[in-house]
Design goal:
Length: 527
Amino acid sequence: MPPLTDAPLRHLVLVLGDQLDRGSDAFAGFDPTQDAVWMAEVSDESTQVWSAKQRTVLFLSAMRHFAETLRTEGCTVLYRTLTDSTADTPNSTLADELLRTLSGCVVQRLRLVEPGDHRVRTQLEAAASARRIPLDLLPDTHFLCSTAEFANHAKGRKQLRMEYFYREMRRRHGVLLQADGSPAGGAWNFDADNRQAFPARGPGCVPDPPRFAPDAITQDVIALVSRRFASHPGSVARFGWPVTREQALRVLHSFVEDRLEHFGQWQDAMWAGQPWLYHAHISAALNLKLLNPREVIHAAEQAYAGGRAPLAAVEGFVRQVLGWREYVRGIYWLKMPAYGELNALGATDDLPAWFWTGATDMRCLNDAITQTLEHGYAHHIQRLMVTGLYALLHGVSPRQVHAWYLAVYVDAVEWVELPNVLGMSQFADGGVMASKPYAATGKYIERMSNHCAGCRYQPALRTGEQACPFTTLYWDFLARHQTLLARNPRMTLQVKNLLRITPAEMTAIAERARAIRSGALDTAPSA
């Protein structure tokens, strides 16, 4: 870290690892002769959850590249790296580092765009208060819906549903609308044309997304992380994520030109050994603010207008960015901090140890977890309907599931990860995010992938050692939560199906489910 400036600073602009946006409000009116930027790498951000190596490398490398860009523009950057720490001055938390910085310089005001993590926001507010320095907490204009606007949307509603919010956002921002204000193509939703499974021959030749060879900055970070966090999960051997805005723009362009055309049709499909498929791979760049959602949406709209992608694909993609992404952030700030403690299903089981290794003979889970540890990535159906579904049916504590997702995925920032996991995936909020639990048997995975071909487990079986654990646990899940689920109109038919199973088989299902939850499947994959 360079010596602190002796001259008093008008503004010290605090930039967090997921705020790498030169156009943010924090830089409005920035004067290099009076202001400085503060950034810090701290161990707490990699250890408060057991952050995987890929995730830590991405954050630190992107931060260092951003700081270097600011310096080339003439900005004073007070930047503390993990290697700047000593036994006497360890850089443990962001609050500790900020207090240490403030003890060495005179600052009139602090400026900070609202963080994406309630814990971090609380820490930094407390640090500023302890030094009695005013903190200007600025709105995050990266998003298309402010927290106040979402609170207004939610006011007076008995239920919050993404579909209605999404339509409101489309109208407000004029996205995919016809001249009279009606939706392009005459419908708001084209899911009937999307979300198909691959044919038996598989996905075909899918254009690879750009991957970037580590430059000197990233190589230094990889060496640091490999040494400092050697025991953490995952590998950095094939790290290739965008760490600069220029690289992020290349990834966006590649998706729009090469894969957007088929995104809608295949967005829910899975295929063993193929991690990338037709997805965009821009969520990490978006969440670090290397990309702006407005330019992402505009690029997709231009592809539709230019005849390079069908409306169904473009609408499905826009729904993820303008609808779901903004919706989960609204939920997070509307409901925190109590939201993080919800556990509507009373789930208390421990996360199976093989979630950290992939060492399970369930092929779908082995593939999704191995891919996750290798690349820090899995697409939304692998997260929701493979790893998330298994945790839901097993009855894993939602806080443990949350910690795993926050740790292993490179795009994981709490504002987006927590509601997706606790709300949509685990139904821990009792229906705030989603209208029903996303519960399914192994037949769903069989329909949407090739994982079940050759797997030792059979999705159609409910009992016995050859029964698919997803199927066994699904029926046990319905039975254990029958009273609660019977009150949900969208679950009525599923719960009624329990009546078709004999008492003897229900006993066998319950016994097998208990064995599964007790560790009967904690084994390495079959050869």
